[in-house]
Every structure is written in structure tokens, then in C-alpha cells.
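fyi for ur records
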Amino acid sequence: GSTIHSDCFKSYNNLAEHLKEYGVNDIEHHSVNQQENFVDPISKASINTIAGTWNGIKMTIAPRNRTPDELQEHLNEFVWHLRGVGFVWAAVFDFVSARLHLFE
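which gave:
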């Protein structure tokens, strides 16, 4: 499952229930009330991390491509990079490079 951290913006109320309408069932949603805490004492979610992550996502998407039709693809790519897949490709490249002499 996935966990979503957000601030307490009214639009995020009932987010997990709303996502279930689209077939997304394994979601936890935690929110941080920034008027009370910058780090939620229960979930440990941080307002700075939430804002920084969203800013990082937006910076990779041209404004003209921030449409509902394309957003999921951009989010998938962001998560792919976030999970260190770049390091996986570097490892594959190193593995292949070290064995190129076998094909000479």
C-alpha cells in the first residue's frame, strides 16, 4: 500500500475514500495541521517534506503538461527516479562494461 501525507487543506478531506471510488483501495492518508505542528507527532509527516516533494515534482513537469491526463505518468516517473532506479541502471552499465572484453 501507499501512504499520502498532506497538509490540512480542505480539498484533501476524505482523500482515501475519494481514491477508493477510482479503485485505489490500499491508501493511508495522514495530514499535518501546520497551525499546530510542522511535524505531525503521530505520522511524523513534515510540512517541509510535503512542500519540497511537491515542488520537486512540479519542477520536472512543464506547466502545459500539468493536466489530469498526463499527471499520473509524471508521478510514476518521479517515483521511479525517487526510488533510486538511476542507481540500478548505473549498476547494469557497470556490469556490462566490465564484461565487454568477452565479446571481442
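The helical segments are 15-20, 47-59, 68-82, 85-98. thats all i got for now
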